[in-house]
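=== RUN LOG ===
request id: a7f3
mode: sequence -> structure
chains: 1
length: 483
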Amino acid sequence: MLTGLRREIDQVAKDKGIDKSVIIEALEEAMKQAARRKYGQEREIEARFDEDTGEIELFEFRTVVENVTPEDETGIGIEEAQEFDPEAEIGDEIGVKLDTSEFGRIVAQTAKQVIIQRVRDAERDIVFDEYQDRRGEIVNGIVRRFDKGSLIVDLGRTEAILPAKEQIPRESYRNGDRIRAYVLDVTKAVRGPQIVLSRGRIEMLTKLFEQEVPEIYEGIVTIEASAREPGARSKIAVSSRDSDVDPVGACVGMKGSRVQAVVQELRGERIDIVPWNPEPARFVCSALSPAQVSKVIIDEEDTSMDVIVPDDQLSLAIGRKGQNVRLAVQLTGWKLDITSESKLKQMSEWLSEAVSIIEGCGDPEADLLLQQGITSLEGLAECPSDLLSSLPGIDEAGAQQIKDRAVVLAKQKVIEAEEKAIADAAAAEVAAAEAAEAAAAAAAEAEAANEEATSEADAEEPVEEGAEDSNEASDEESESKEE
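=== RESULT ===
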């Protein structure tokens, strides 16, 4: 029926990357639909591909009856049936081969449309299966166009979308630029598989390190935790299962080559690599790098820490707009409160003043309270009495006295702070008024100087006119002498 059909099937399967069975199934379905359109939808028709002849054969199944009436299109007489099968009996179903040479142009067009659709569906399924397995990987593509802030990326066999919310802030691309992105999700859609990419997720950062650092890929070095603010700064905590391998050094690479490759891919995003430690306090100290930490006060019940840093390290520990401490919180999972040493000293003085109501108590007890996480007068007033009575020389009555004293001191501190704020505001108003007066005086002096300069210029003008008159007179005298 179709010359070279097997060769055509092999060629299509090779070009499209589709299994031959899918194409054969599509051809059989197409021929069956074409035959039903020619002979009628009520006919029971089956298509089969003959591997030996390379043809698709059509069979119509009819029921063997004794006498066939003109209205019966699905029956076959017993005598005609026995020509196909000598053992045929009434009630059996006989497959009668149909002649496909009479198929017209419309039937052939229908078969073509079915084949195209089935091949297209098979291609979509292959692409979906391929990228579903690549979910969580980094892929390369080319930016093709823009759609409402999203990038449409050509991956070769299909296209993917990089939504605006998954892009790195302030990162721009042009049509034709190469791009690397993380495969975030793969779903089936009407027009084919929907592949969603991301460059802003933390997984993009960790996958880049897996590609650049062989020790991570081999499992020797592990990224234990990571935190990221896309386009600005990131932190990763790494550990090593081999004592001879420095995890931070492995990620940094020779002269920083490995981490610089990741930084360049992320368009200059700063990356801090810190060693992971199972002890929370040590891990927090590492996470706050490059700032130096003096002391850590842990509250395990609230999973929070008060981190004490030198006064000159306070701004470095907090970072620009709180970025450094914010990333450290994400990295460690602990709530962090950054305090300077001078502020801690002031807290210790307040606590010492509160506990000094008990004879013999002072700075040592205040230090013990700081170690227990009591870092304010309000916290001292609300702390359990059992905690205070556990300190040397303090009973339950003394604990209550200390708490009452803390309440009084806290109110005093509030009043002092309000008075200081009022005084500062008044001083600022006075300074502003003085500055305004000075500015007005300077303006008046400038105006007076300007007026004086103007008057002097006006006074000099007649002298110049006299000089001109004398010059004119001398000119007239010289002319008369010449005459």
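=== NOTES ===
Residues 13 and 113 are 17 Å apart (CA to CA).
The two ends are 134 Å apart (CA to CA).
=== END ===
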